[in-house]
Specification:
alpha+beta, six-stranded antiparallel sheet, 4 helices, 30% helix, globular
Length: 98
């Protein structure tokens, strides 16, 4: 899941990650990722895993370092994603700052 989210950032296409997100995430945010993708469109994005995911029973967190470059401007946010086990599969369930 961590690698899938990294690929979503680098390709700026989050549809596949969100389509298989946990039920709580889909209920709260829906599955339309077009606004996020528009916000990220001007940036060149490099995403890397910050260590291995931390698993605690049926939940996990994974840290990701981002590098967003637009011209001479570079931002380096650190994010953390929540992953939950639902119906036997690990699913993306939200993002926050790390």
């Amino acid at each position: 899941m961590q690698q899938a989210y990294i690929q979503a950032y680098e390709s700026k296409q989050f549809g596949s990650v969100v389509a298989t997100a946990c039920d709580a995430y889909k209920k709260k945010f829906g599955t339309d990722t077009s606004d996020l993708e528009k916000q990220l469109a001007p940036y060149d994005i490099k995403a890397t895993a910050d260590g291995e995911p931390t698993v605690d029973g049926g939940t996990a967190t994974a840290k990701i370092n981002l590098e967003l470059t637009k011209g001479a401007d570079t931002k380096r946010p650190k994010i953390q994603i929540k992953i939950v086990k639902e119906s036997g599969s690990w699913k993306f369930c939200g993002e926050g700052t790390a």
